[in-house]
Every structure is written in C-alpha cells, then in structure tokens.
C-alpha cells in the first residue's frame, strides 16, 4: 500500500506524505501546534502518589483446592472443597463465611380448565359434576438466592424453585454450610 500507483499520471496526489515538502505533517492530529478544542491534551503535571500514601492491599489469593479433593457441598455454582469455598469469582476461605438464603419463589393454586369443562358437562346431568371444581393444580415458580461472603469477597447464586420442597432442601444445604464455617 505504500508503493505509488503505477497507473497514476503524476497530476493528482493525496494522502500523508504525498504532496508537500518532506517533513511537513500530513492530515490528522496537528503536530507541533496547540491542539484545537476536542483533541486530547497532555496534563500540565505528572500525576504521582506522594510518599507515605498507603496503597490498598492486594486481594489475598488462596491456593487452589488440592487435586483429587472431593467436594463436601455444592449449592448452585458454589462448591465447598476442604477448607475453601470455590466460586466462579475465585476461592474464599471457609472459616468465618457468612451464608444467607432468600426465598423469591411463589406457589400458585388454580382450578384447571379440564375441571371446569367437566363440571359444566356433568352439572347438566346431575349435581355430582360440581365436585370437579374441587380439583386444584399447584405450580411453583421463582428462585431461591444463596449468597456467601468471606475473605472480602461476595458471591450470589440463584437456584430455580421446582416445587414447594425446594426451599427446605436449599435451607438444609445452607445450614450445613453454616455449620462447616464455624
């Protein structure tokens, strides 16, 4: 691309380094002059930290879990292995960890469409058809959020609620994790 066009007749030349005396700047950022408004400018001072200003400590890194160690507990993407809590954000110490669980699920109860149709059909024949209205259908939706905080880190995971017993299972796991964190 830096070679001249062999088909050019020599009259029309454009672009950087084409036309103009050698050493003169091409188009773009102005060189040697004060840049106009909108161009980035160098700061008038060199920003540095003064002596004695404490820096934030580097986050403590925990060694990886030993190879072949079996997980003691797994809640969503939180896994307890040995004396560590392994999350996608990194490892945390198990000792002193704070575990929380929040139920964000709900269970709805409704009469299914089949029961309404059967009640109308059999209500015309006899009054026994009204018993079909006693049919109920329960549906659980939502999530249970489990959070863990330890070693200056925090991680949260969401576990889908598949039934009303999901909360009891998750709370059992969280209580076991709390007992390990003491």
Please specify the SSE layout and strand pairing.
Elements lengths: L72 E3 L2 E4 L2 E4 L2 E4 L4 E13 L2 H13 L11 E14 L2 E8 L5 H15 L2
Antiparallel strand pairs: 1-2, 2-3, 3-4, 5-6, 6-7
Characterize the structure shown.
The mean pLDDT is 79. Helix content is 15%, strand content 27%. The two termini are 68 Å apart. It has helices at 113-125, 166-180; strands at residues 73-75, 78-81, 84-87, 90-93, 98-110, 137-150, 153-160. Strand 6 and strand 7 form a beta hairpin.
Adjacency order of strands in the biggest sheet: 1-2-3-4
User: How is the main sheet built?
Assistant: 4 strands, antiparallel
Distance between the first and last residues' Cα:
68 Å
Our count of helices gives 2
Task: Return the average pLDDT rounded to an integer.
Answer: 79
State the helical fraction. 10-25%
Outline:
flat
Q: What is the strand tally?
A: 7
Structural class category: alpha+beta
**What is the strand content?**
25-35%
- Low-pLDDT windows of residues: none
Radius of gyration: 35 Å
């Amino acid at each position: 691309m830096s070679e001249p066009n062999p088909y050019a007749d020599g009259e029309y030349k454009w672009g950087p380094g084409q036309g103009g005396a050698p050493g003169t700047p091409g188009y773009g950022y102005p060189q040697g002059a004060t840049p106009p408004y909108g161009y980035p400018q160098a700061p008038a001072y060199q920003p540095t930290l003064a002596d004695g200003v404490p820096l934030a400590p580097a986050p403590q890194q925990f060694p990886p879990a030993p190879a072949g160690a079996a997980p003691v507990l797994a809640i969503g993407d939180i896994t307890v292995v040995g004396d560590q809590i392994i999350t996608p954000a990194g490892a945390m110490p198990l000792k002193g960890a704070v575990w929380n669980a929040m139920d964000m699920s709900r269970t709805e109860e409704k009469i299914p469409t089949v029961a309404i149709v059967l009640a109308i059909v059999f209500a015309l024949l006899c009054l026994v058809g009204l018993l079909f209205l006693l049919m109920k259908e329960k549906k659980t939706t939502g999530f249970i959020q489990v959070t863990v905080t330890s070693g200056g880190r925090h991680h949260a995971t969401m576990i889908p609620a598949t039934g009303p017993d999901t909360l009891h299972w998750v709370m059992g796991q969280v209580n076991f994790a709390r007992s390990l964190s003491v």
